[in-house]
Sequence to fold (511 residues):
Amino acid sequence: MVIFRPRDVHTQTEYRLRQNRFFAEVAPVLLLTVLAFAVMGYHPGYEDDGVYLTAVQSDLHPALYSHDAVFFKLQMQASAFDNAMAEFVRLTHVPVAWAELLGQLLAIFLILWACHSLAKRFFELPEVRWAGVAMVAAMLTLPVAGTAIYIADQHLHPRNFATALVLLAVDRILAGKLWHVLPLLAAAFAMHPMMAAFGFSFCFCLALALMDPVHVWLRDMRAIFARGAALALPLGWVLDSSSPAWRKAAETRTYYFLYKWTWYEWLGAVAPLFLFWLLWRGAEKRGATLLARFALAVLAYAVFQQLVAFAMLTPPSFLRLVSLQPMRYLQLIYLFLALMAGCLAGLFLLKRRIWRWAVFLAIMNGGMLAAQEVQFPDCPHFEMPWTRPENPWLQAFAWIRQNTPRDAYFALDPNYLAAPGEDYHSFRALAERSQLADGIKDAAVVVLVPALADEWNREVEAEAGWAQFKQGDFERLKNEFGVDWVLVNSSQHLGLDCRWRNRMLSVCRIP
Fold:
């Protein structure tokens, strides 16, 4: 006969509770993480990864990028992301490609876990909470109006981790664990300072919204707006005259300028405010006090950040402030909107009807999957570490990475990112070699780091008319910049020492 002491019974009870929690919460989040990943796809080296993945590779292999490394290193001075990823690779000996994939899955899991924790604060029924999380999982690649970003990126981006940390901080405020908030926001700041600043702004609004009575924090909010306007008065660097080269780089980013936004982009910015106003009023009438306070905090945060954006982006003398991209506050708004929309669909529409859930999941995930297929017409949906590239551009990048010297210095079409079939994959990140500045992605870095503007303009101007370049033009680049390799269209290789080619591109040395 086995006799269990009270301590044994207590231990067994705790074990069963942990098991139950795993099957009730962790396992569904894991399942939705896989579904979200399947819908959004995976595209390392895409867009901003031209900075982040390149920085990680540079930290691990200092011999890489012996030329023009400033076009990614200076931007990364404000983030610990590349150092953290490089340290993880050193400690675990996991290849960078696999580490990035694992990091992406972890970031998605944390975002969805935090969303489920938030939904638990507002809704009692499990099916309602999971409807909200399922909506977020489907909508991670929803474009955020006019800002050129998504709720989450299709590659490992420090913004993905920062988003998860901000959501966890919001959950801690709702749980009354305020001492957890600052460490979470500090970690978010280490990953992505800009998104952490938006997170701090929202957390502050939420903490005020939870005060009693509500009119107290509304009165305080007016004072905060006034102080915020005062704090928004620029420091000396803001009023510095911008160079023509910097203005040229800034003009490549129309989303920096509010007056260039289209009507539908403005609709995407304003409509969520109205929807959260409706949620606030509706939750108040139903007696859902916490949900009402949350919706009011979202509304106040949006109004405040919109006023700050107008103050920063409207006066011509504040042109240098466009690099702070204040309208990206909408990323949090869109995430909360997806979560609330899903929860309300679960509450009023889906309930526990299996066929309704099936239709809901098919429409949401199918629609977003189709959008991703349209966005990447010339690349597979999953660009995994074990797959061989079929895209001609990615084939060229892979050959260069494996067959050229680490100190090779390349020139290629300055607008190659927008070339047919290229799908905005970064040469630096995927070929792992130095290149002359490009006219698209490096322009965004120049806006953030104005000191690079003149050198960027000099290099891009030297590559002007690339499609008509002949041997003499390539030799000029070699004499002026030290470029010794080029990636050219196959019709341009005459007179060059070409080592590899496919149906579209040739990799050649400059004699």
Summary: The radius of gyration is 25 Å. The chain has 20 helices and seven strands.
